[in-house]
Amino acid sequence: MSAHAEKHEHFAGSNKLFTSIWIWLVLLTVIEIVLAYRPMAMHFMLTILLGLSIVKAALIVAYFMHLKFERLSLILTIVPMLVICICLLFVFFPDSFRSHGLRYKFKETPPAPAAESH
Amino acid sequence: MSTEARAEHFPAADWDGGVFPYRVGHRKLGMWLFIVSDSLTFSALLIGYSYLRASNVWPTPFPFYPSIVFSSVMTFCLLSSSLTMVFAVSASSRGDRAKARKWILGTIFFGLAFLVLHLIEWNHLYSEGLRPFSLPADWVTRYAAPDGTLPSPLFGATFFTITGLHMFHVFTGAIYLAVVAARLNKLKHEDVEISGLYWHFVDLVWMFVFPLIYIMSVDIGTH
């Protein structure tokens, strides 16, 4: 079909589409800021914020970075391994929860300086 | 079925040479791979920050003004810069170099606005007494847990490292775009698209930094 050299490069997506994506991104950001001032449990808020961030990131990657219009093999090369690597980093959190409160408990009674032992 | 039509159905033909298997040039593939590795850098930093935060008493010091107002306007600047960048790439794909250059300059403007606002915001915190390894004296008493556990002094370290590295990316991105705008007549369309990929990535990182660093640390006056 388009084997002959084209003067204009193909770049899918209209400026109207990109503007509507931008409006969505701004709206989601406003929701995040409003959420900041709603009293709610920390982990509940964290889940919502991360969910919104992932939606925003997906919109940026898919439309602004144009990945949605690329070849499937490129998408499969880039996205799954990145997601897996990031998820692997969560292996550290059990240790983080374990060590909560182990430090900086010395407000009233500072620890006695350790005895010199040689 | 002709031989040519059949070859299209065999994925192996993609890897026999003579074609771009991903249908993108090597430079664009290189930028994608760089973005993957840079995403891992930022993920590691954000997860390191979350690790410290979950294992310590953490201050939540950001007031509505100036911190949240500034960071929200900064977010708006970055989102708008992404929009102008995508307009630039779109104009460049139509061969309209003058318009592409204009939109790229608009992108640089929003990027620099982000940088200036962020430096003002850093200055607010610095003048309050926040340092990489110590908190302002009044934060220490204000955000101590009811059982007397003191807030972690590493707040400043995580804050300045993550936002600082992101700021550095915005700064290098602005220089990159300035070079692209200056040499636009010599560059191919794909080169403009590649600089766009980098710029959108910087925007994408902020979409995680903003909620995790700012929104999660809003001072809602419960202390």
What does this protein look like?
The complex is a heterodimer of chains A (118) and B (223). By secondary structure, chain A is mostly helical. Chain A has a domain at 15-83. Chain A is built from four helices and no strands. Chain A has helices at residues 15-36, 42-64, 72-88, 93-98. With 223 residues, chain B is mostly helical. Chain B has a single domain, classed as Four Helix Bundle (Hemerythrin (Met), subunit A), CATH 1.20.120.80. Chain B contains seven helices and no strands. In chain B, helix 2 runs antiparallel to helix 6 (155-182) and helix 3 packs antiparallel against helix 4 (97-128). Chain B is elongated, with a radius of gyration of 22 Å. Chain B starts with a helix and ends in a 9-residue tail after the last helix. At the A-B interface, helix 1, helix 2, helix 3 and helix 4 of A face helix 2, helix 3 and helix 7 of B.
Give the structure's gist in a few sentences.
Chain A is mainly α and 118 residues long. Helices cover 58% and strands 0% of the residues of chain A.
